[in-house]
Amino acid sequence: MxxxxxxxxxxxxxxxxxxxxMAVSAVAKAIGVSPDEVxxxxxxxxxxAEQVASIQLAELELKKQAQSMNLDFAKLMAEDKKSARDMQxxxxxxIPALLAVFVTVGFFGILLGLxxxxxxxxxxxxxxxGSLATAWTGVMAFYFGSSASSQAKTELLAKSExxx
Length: 164
Hints:
Layout: H1 2-7, H2 9-15, H3 20-31, H4 38-44, H5 49-68, H6 73-91, H7 95-115, H8 123-144, H9 147-159
Helix pairs in contact: 2-3, 3-5, 7-8
């Protein structure tokens, strides 16, 4: 799905944030599939040139719509994560930590099982591994920040004047 960040960065960002429904709807309309099918169609990598062009047009339309609503998808995504972290600080719930442990153990357990050939490769196992990899990335972003915020920090540092 990395290709989507190149072709339609606004849609890719929106898909990962609190306004994913808006992005899914735009893509579904653009490529002529139901919203339930968007994820599998995008992940398949078997889009026609016309469908990719339609996604690019949907990207422009989504940008216009976001601008008219004064939305910044990257900022909303960061605020969404911040609110989750703030809630965790306030409630000190064990649930996020337990989920993080289960996801990490599951992800690396399956990887280890595949590398040591304790598991036979199957489509279902690979689907589970992909889902756990995505979840593990979310866990790491929750606890250690995301590469997007790191990239923004790098850009700000590059634009700043050196201390004297």
